[in-house]
Amino acid sequence: MPPSELTAAVSSLDSLDGVTVVEGPFQHEGGSKWVLEVKLQPDEIEATSQIPQESTWFVLIDSTYPGGSIRIYPAEEGSITATYPHQRLNVAGDEDTPWRKGNICVARYGHIIGRSGATGEPNSPDERLRWHLERALSWLEAASKGELRQEGEPFELPIFSTNTAPQNRVAFNETAESLELWRSEFGNWGFVDLVGLTEPSDVFLTEQFRDKNDNVVHHPKWGEYISSNICSQTRGAWLLLEEPPIEPPWEVPETWSDLANLLQDSSIDPFELRANIDSIVEDDAFNCLLLGFPIPSEVGGSSELIHWQAIELSDVRPASELPGFRETPRGKEIAARVDLSRDSIRWLDSDNWAREQLSRRGHIQDPLREASVLLIGAGALGSTVAEGLVRDGCHDLAIVDGETLEIGNLARHTLTLPDVGENKAEALANRLNSVSPHVDVDGFSLSFPLEEDEQLEVVESADVVIDCTASNSVLQALNSCRWEEPVLFCSASIGRRGNRLFYFASYSLSFPVDEFQEEFEPWRLQEQIEWQPDEDAVPERVGCWHPASVIRMDQVMTWAGTITRLLEQDASLGLRGTEFRVLESRDDGTPTVSEAEPPFQDVEQWVAPDSGVSVEIPVACLKAIVDICVDANPLETGGILAGSALEETAARIIRASDPPRDSDQGPTTFTRGTERVDEWLREARDSLGIHYLGEWHYHPGGSAELSSPDRAQMNEIASTDEYGCPHPIMFIVGGNPSETLAVRAYLFHRNRSYEELVHIGPSDEPSRPTNSFDLDIDFPNARVGDSQ
């Protein structure tokens, strides 16, 4: 039994003028579709047309109605037999079906991105079937008046039946520019070289076109994959018509006699042509004739390019086998006429593989699309950026990376299992060359900078240089190179957690590394503050100590696509123009990208009165110290300060450690332990790039003044090479958590007196960010003491 929604939809057709339900819905011989037989009687059928006043049709409805497809086919008897525009080839159907194969397109462009509704098609069960049949009535009226093709609509080629041909396909490369080469060749014929590919093995591509006098007419260009994957070569012929070979209402010739009749008013005789090209037809080879004609992009528009439709050529008997004929041109023509006049034309699938045609679904804009791109780094981000660029239309790319693809890389890389053990750059180049027939990608199994002359030419010819290595040495090398013409530079990297993109672009003669470092340094430190080794890194594998960051491929893909869009925008940067952007995604993983708020806008700052050294500590870091003090009260506590020297006279504290587990804590004493301290410092230095800067102590219920043990400890640290810190900083927190805590800061020096730092308040930003918090802390005035 049909579903109730479909039954109700069919019943509603009783009130639709011009539609009579004959039978159904029923399932034809166990098929998966519901079938409805109807008679259609449009109001306005042109009397002189081939469309009958009443015709029989079969409606095939998906079992998921009101979802799924609805297709309308003419009946084998009592309906149309010709093929019209916006209709599939209307040939006879299968023996066991009472309908032909020419379903009509009533929901025009309704298959865009695989969804119905692109033309306002209703989705409700009461309306959807009725809407399709209303459109079918309108289609028949327009067909009878010759109005199915309207000016300004996209031009649609007629359908060439390829059911009788083998599975070979022909690909050609024709553009608006090549149309100009062909304008003097209408009505002419010649020969064409074709090459077969290893993969896909059923495709033959056009290479050199020559006229019948062997002069080159057109030599289309293909990319690296084509030239490297040719497995066979053959020769075909071409014939160029002035217009598409279409017979009314919208059909192409089915037989060689049909083609001869269509061309009878021209100087072209297909049988004579077949005799002239007999020399190229070989046994057990792919033999074809390319029938070409100009086509527009819109109905009624000017011609924009040449379309070639391939015909497989079959053997013709020798003329000598015909009584009274010899192997002369006339004899060969007669033999072709006798053998082919009733033969069906074996049309082959033929596609225009021109770059402009393949990128119509979406591509980046010039000048990035036409630029020569040098990509340094073929890791997770670099490989994904490269893939996006090539698929978006970039066709000239050089990739540099000296590393080998390892099995662990596959979690977030565009390369695949067969590439494991191969050089990343070379394997990626091979992959990308197979993405498009127009791409030329070179891979260099080397680290940057390149040194050989041939390699240097690749670097010097680049219009765009993209760095995805997150390596300072690469940026320094780019800074030392100088191009003769300005280059669009881009350095892009992903934050350690994958939720942040760092993007720097410059249009200049060399990479401005100092400007980049100035912009990036605060963010590097922010990343270090946020880094949690136990959460943000894992061992590469069980039994392998090497840490690997925890970043998912979907995050990499989000940022790679963002980089392409930013590059496209920055193609308009002026000379010496730069842009630095930091984008963030939401912490919950939702792919929402927004501009990041700059870090270190909320800091407390001190300055040394004698040496002029300034010290910054983020409020969040200072609050973390206070929280540890509150938890430890009434015992003393302390830990290590780590950070970076921004320059010779400035330092920024990034992290304050908890007290090591072997520390000795009492109400009036604290001795910091050493358990895992060396490991902590080594990890901070090697993994995070921050260094030991000093110590912090808490004096519960006491003042934030230096004690004698404090001074002794800091003087020892300043004079000990093991710490590598001749100017250590000490922060002392004093007081009770129930009252206001006080913080004093001190700077010690090797071989001279220490200084108490003067607190000068928050950094000189106009205002703190909205996410800042108030500290209930007192900052006493500074004083200078001695180191005794």
Describe the structure in brief.
With 788 residues, the protein is α/β, with parallel strands linked by helices. A hairpin with a 2-residue loop joins strand 25 and strand 26 (650-656).
What does the main sheet amount to? Answer: 10 strands, mixed
Number of strands: 34
Mean pLDDT, all residues? 89
Share of residues in helices: 10-25%
**Structural class, from helix and strand content?**
alpha/beta
CA-based shape:
elongated
What's the alpha carbon Rg, rounded to whole Å?
A: 39 Å
Q: Helical stretch count?
A: 18
Distance between the amino and carboxyl termini: 101 Å
The unreliable regions are 109-118, 765-774, 781-788
Strand content: 25-35%
General description of the model:
The chain is of the alpha/beta class and 788 residues long. Helices cover 23% and strands 28% of the residues. The strands form six sheets. Strands 23, 24, 25, 26, 29, 30, 31, 32, 33 and 34 form a ten-stranded mixed beta sheet that branches. Residues 109-118, 765-774 and 781-788 have low confidence and may be disordered.
Topology:
Blueprint lengths: L3 H8 L7 E9 L5 E8 L14 E8 L7 E5 L53 H17 L24 E4 L3 H7 L6 E9 L5 E9 L4 E3 L5 H5 L1 E11 L15 H7 L7 H7 L11 E9 L6 E10 L16 H12 L8 E4 L2 H4 L13 E5 L3 H12 L4 E5 L23 H10 L6 E5 L8 H8 L3 E4 L4 H9 L6 E8 L5 E9 L4 H18 L2 H4 E5 L2 E6 L3 H18 L6 E9 L7 E3 L7 E5 L6 E5 H14 L4 E11 L2 E7 L7 E2 L4 E2 L5 H12 L2 E10 L7 H12 L9 E7 L5 E9 L2 E5 L1 E5 L14 E2 L10
Parallel strand pairs: 5-7, 5-12, 9-10, 13-14, 13-16, 14-15, 16-17, 24-26, 29-30, 31-34
Antiparallel strand pairs: 1-2, 2-3, 3-4, 6-7, 6-9, 7-8, 10-11, 17-18, 18-21, 19-20, 21-22, 23-24, 23-33, 25-26, 25-29, 27-28, 30-31, 31-32
Helix pairs in contact: 6-7, 9-15
